[in-house]
Amino acid sequence: MRKRTTSRAKETIKEATTKATEAVKETVEKTAVKASEVIEEAKDAAADITKAPVVEEAKSLRMEHKVGERILGTDPKSGRPVSVKIGRFGPLVQIGTPEDEEKPLFASLLKGQSMSSITLDEALRLFDLPRTLGNFEDKPVTVGIGKFGPYIRHDNKYVSLPKTYEPLSVTLEEAIDIIHQKREQESQRVIKSFTEEPDLEILNGRYGAYIAYKKKNYKIPKGSEPASLSLEACLQIIKESEEKPATKKRTTSKKSAK
Q1: Which residues of 230-241 are buried (b: 16+ CB within 10 A; e: fewer)?
Q2: Cis-peptide into 53, omega within 30 deg
Q3: Model pLDDT for residues 186-239, shown as the tens digit of each residue
Q4: CA–CA separation, 31 vs 37, rounded Å?
Q5: In the chain, where do the E strands start and end?
Q6: Among 28, 58, 75, 229, which residue's CB has the most CB atoms within a 10 Å radius?
Q7: Contact 93/106 with Cβ under 8 angstroms?
Q8: Of 161, 234, 227, which is closest to residue 199 (Cα–Cα)?
């Protein structure tokens, strides 16, 4: 009797274990299928969102904001787009794009012009620079905008255009006056020069007269009259200065607090 009871108990446990295992397998399979369906739905939704016009527009706006570009219109001469953007040396106008066969044209904005308010006509006028004003002393006078701002060029020399003048409106007469002013300043700056040694000049500086020679400056000894120095005297000052040992700067060490 006892053996029969034990045998039935074993069979009952075995059946229960088998049913439990099958139930677990079924649950796992259903969960896996459901998870797979959810993942596929998520992928489809993500693809739809990426293709949405709003997202594409947002990408475009983000890129436009990144480069700081604003389209002004079309150049009537070339038919290429005209835009304003931030360049290496500040705001500028660009005609064309890097993808064009012809290289883009660039022009810097004038002082007082703003990227947010400049018009197409104002932008196109910038490409009139540099412009030739006429001749002075049988040599052309031009005005333009360079790395350091507006300038006047004459006889291969550059003169900064004063802030009171505009490159697009300055006249030849005004430019000649500016050239004369620059020459007067230069004449006051140069105390003495030597035709036999063009690289050597005695100049007026912020802290007094000095000798300039081959892109180096040399102090004039106290008691010497700069205007009366000869070429030989200047070269001797340069030689003595070069022979002097370089003085080391004194360094003081801070005492550690006790």
Answers
A1: eeeebeebbeee
A2: no
A3: 888 899 999 999 999 999 988 889 999 998 999 999 989 999 999 999 999 999
A4: 10
A5: 70-74, 81-87, 90-95, 105-108, 131-136, 139-146, 149-154, 157-160, 190-193, 200-205, 208-213, 216-219
A6: 229
A7: yes
A8: 234
